[in-house]
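Before a colleague's protein record goes any further, I have to sign it off. My question to you is simply how this chain folds and whether the tokens agree. I do not need a full report, just your reasoning and any doubts. This is what I was given:
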Amino acid sequence: MSLLQTENIVKQYRTQLALDNLSMTVPKQSIYGLLGPNGAGKTTLLRIINQITAPDSGKVVLDGHQISRNDLSSIGYLPEERGLYKKMKVGEQSLYLARLKGLSKQDAMSRLKKWFTKLEIIDWWDKKVEELSKGMQQKIQFVTTVLHEPKLLIFDEPFSGFDPINASILKNEILKLRDDGATVLFSTHNMGSVEEMCDHITLIDRAKSILEGSVSKIREEWAANEYDVVFRSEADIQSNRHYQVLKTNRENGRTSVRLKAEGNIDMNNIIRDMTDKGKLLSFNPALPSMNEIFIRVVEANKNN
């Protein structure tokens, strides 16, 4: 079942068409990636879902009904452009933002202390925001975004400005939020994060959706009939009429080979042939990365 649907969304800014009949369906309790080049329309769509701006036509459906202002308490939104009050103290500001989202003072304090302790930022409570690094400020905003436990979380470039350690911490927290019942929609340019986290994606280019679906199925569909084979020992694999050897690597007594099948040959025939060549350790389809697919799809769309 879906939590969020956008149906034929159109948004025009003077001479620029930002979104052109864009539709997508976000399943409940999933992590959904919104991908696309700069200027594709991703942030416009996120702002429409969060009711910061309105579409010219089309509608947004949340949990079975057309979205309204009353649904804002069910949404947590972390925009790409962060917006904390720099002169306020961290704790004071976090409490203020939590109260705006309907939490009592007691409940807000309890949740804030829990999150600040978990993310090891409790020592920042009495510091002014302007004293913190960009990454530290982003941690604070992440906490205030998820604190009221909304059913829909919207993140626009959530990992921007984080070092690898803190980016990993944030990814783990987002995955846990999904596992605990939240639905996550986020925009990112980091294709590695997409492969690690996303269940589904929509790729937008020039205001239109040009690719959508589950990450695993998309990677399988875009596979180029290539396979990675690893032997426990030395093996001599040569190209023949059934497959082409693209590369071979020998290290620590093992042999790794990338093959490209020719024509419509059955993969089982290749496996049998590999078994005759040596002791197999693994045989797997060589799936393209989401970064490769992103580039190929966007480049193809330019030529249409």
Remarks:
- The chain has a mean pLDDT of 92.
- The radius of gyration is 24 Å.
- The longest helix spans residues 164-179.
